[in-house]
Amino acid sequence: MLIGVPKEIKAFENRVGLTPASVREMIGNNHKVLVETNAGHAIGFDDTDYEAAGASIAGTAADVFAKAEMVVKVKEPQASEIAALREGQILFTYLHLAPDEKQTQGLLDSGCTGIAYETVTDNRGGLPLLAPMSEVAGRMAVQAGATCLEIAHGGRGVLLGGVPGVTPGRVVVIGGGVVGSNSVFVATGMGGHVTVIDRDIRRLAEIDSQYKSLITTRFSNSTNIEEEVANADLLIGAVLVPGAEAPKLVTADMVKSMKRGAVIVDVAIDQGGCCETSRPTTHDDPTYIVDGVVHYCVANMPGAVARTSTFALNNATLPFAIKIANMSVKDALESDANLMEGLNVHAGKLTYEAVATAQGRDFTPAADALTG
Asked: What is the pLDDT of residues 39-69, one digit of tens each?
């Protein structure tokens, strides 16, 4: 199979779908790889590195999309990339379709097979291709939030860890999954006063057992969220419903109740955000203020640490990419129920129910779409 790796074109996105080491593994499995020139240059992967691994270099993204049987990316395809997709072509990348009707329609019109990293599952019910970027985003959320709390960035001038004799900043994390647990790890390490809110009592017990008296855990309900949001210096939205639009757990009225200069980092923004006042931002203009509260809602947070993120992502995605290339997409999906969960669109049909529900569209079960 010919695998294509285009250069990412989303604003300030420097991750790349395959590293030179991953290309070498693809070549070792008797596949061909076509990489757009300078696809990994920003993070230290030059064209010569890809050529040494066995790849060919394409001068333009158009060349990659025109020739590749499977396109391996990082972020959801942008308008020019969607226009370049074709019937029968495989797209393996993050899609985050639920809040993005325009992208969904474009992929359906293209006739491509779109497999979304974020909905591939594992045997424990986890999301193994989303987890590495969730780990990065969770750790970055505290780092970004701490910076936004500085006066120069619109914050209320709070040092997250405080100093002797001064109370540390109050960090509230809504969601105890991969993003949330990584936020807790960094926030406690920085000396913040941390509260975690989740609806899964077993998950709260695990976090409580790990951190003991260093943190507070609270069950997720409207009353508890209202109380904690009002007192937070830094609020981290770490809510995830796989493949679906994030629930708006933090209302506009709750935001109004927050202290002037408090900060919200909504990591759920890829799925629409868990705060009513959240809207996507970019690394070149990452924040805005609503009712005196600083909002940081960058939709590709791990892109800021693109080299680390690329290695972490490739570690997770490469085995699946090789499996698809080795077996053909139909055989690979039918042989692996977890990979089948990643199928979001196929031959003009929407195959992921949560996306269909969010957008009010017709839904075709993935297995039916493959055999139809």
From this structure: 999 999 999 999 999 999 999 999 999 999 9
- What is the C-alpha separation between 163 and 179, in angstroms, rounded? 27
- Could you give the dihedral angle defined by the CA atoms of residues 56, 37, 284 and 234, in that order, rounded to the nearest 10 degrees? 20
Taking residue 122's Cβ as centre, other Cβ atoms within 10 Å add up to: 12
Does 122 participate in catalysis according to the annotation? Answer: no
The pTM score is 0.89
Give me the pLDDT at residue 244, please. 85
Tell me which of 198, 233, 270, 346 is the catalytic residue: 270
Residue 47 known to be catalytic: no
Task: Of 82, 39, 88, give the one whose Cα is nearest residue 60.
Answer: 39
In the block, tokens 């074109």 appear at 9
Cα-based distances in Å from 271 to 42, 58, 314: 27, 33, 22
Position 242 scores a pLDDT of 82
Assess whether 284 and 137 both reside in one domain: yes
What tokens does 180 get? 């949330």
pLDDT for position 20: 98
Q: What is the CATH number of the domain that holds 277?
A: 3.40.50.720
Q: Is residue 70 part of a domain?
A: yes
First to last CA, the chain: 24
* Residues spanned by the domain of 30: 2-119+306-371
Q: Torsion angle of alpha carbons 72, 77, 82, 84, nearest 10°?
A: -40
* Buried/exposed 159-179: b ≥16 CB within 10 Å, e otherwise: bbbeeeeeebbbbbbbbbbbb
Catalytic pick among 96, 193, 295, 346: 96
Burial of residue 71 (CB within 10 Å: 0-12, 13-18, 19+) is: buried
